[in-house]
Amino acid sequence: MKRLLVVVDMQRDFIDGSLGTREAVAIVPKVKRKIEEYLADGQEVVFTMDTHFEDYLDTQEGRNLPVKHCIKGTNGWRLCEELEGFEGRRFEKSAFGSVECGSYAALGGYDRVELAGLCTDICVISNAMVIKAMAPELPVMVDAECCAGVTPKSHRNALEAMKMCQVEVPGI
Fold first, then answer.
1. Contact status, residue 110 vs residue 101, Cβ threshold 8 Å
2. Are 31 and 137 in contact (CB under 8 A)?
């Protein structure tokens, strides 16, 4: 079985930086273990990276969320220290979901795609929906234990919404 793990936005600003949460900090070891399991099994791991520039506050997102984060080249833009050494393609994205990553998953001949990372209620759900839209017959799964949302409530709401859209969310 050929599987792909998409690690969504496990960047410093979302973990312990400008938009960090204790829930995000708590999932880092779990995500690291999941990556190690995939690689040990000979499977592929890719990463999305929220990528903004100095003009972030002038963008639509910046006007709605006026907190500079993931500015390319800054420390906050980098993957967290525990994950940055892992090999795997990086998909930089300025939007919540990566069409490039979705296309990669859809055309890669995978039997299953799994997502883990941040934030469940924004970028994880967006990337899951992009993949489902581009490959409706490809099974997509989200590991709830390896994700964190902006709040615990919005995390849970996003997991429930993904289930309604035929994304597997074991344990939910």
1. no
2. no
SS (H, E, C) 158-172: HHHHHHHCCCECCCC
Where helices occur in 7-59 by DSSP H, the ranges are 12-15, 22-40
Residues 6 or more apart whose Cβ sits within 8 Å of residue 159: 120, 142, 144, 147, 169, 172
What are 17-28's pLDDT values in tens digits? 999 999 999 999
Residue 15: name the closest of 111, 147, 128, 142 by CA.
147
Q: Which residue blocks in 47-124 are alpha helix, DSSP H?
A: 60-64, 99-107
pLDDT in tens, 107-154: 999 999 999 999 999 999 999 999 999 999 999 999 999 999 999 999
Task: State the Cα–Cα distance between residues 55 and 72, nearest whole angstrom.
Answer: 11
Structure tokens at 70: 């993931």
6 forms bridges with which residues in the sheet? 46, 115
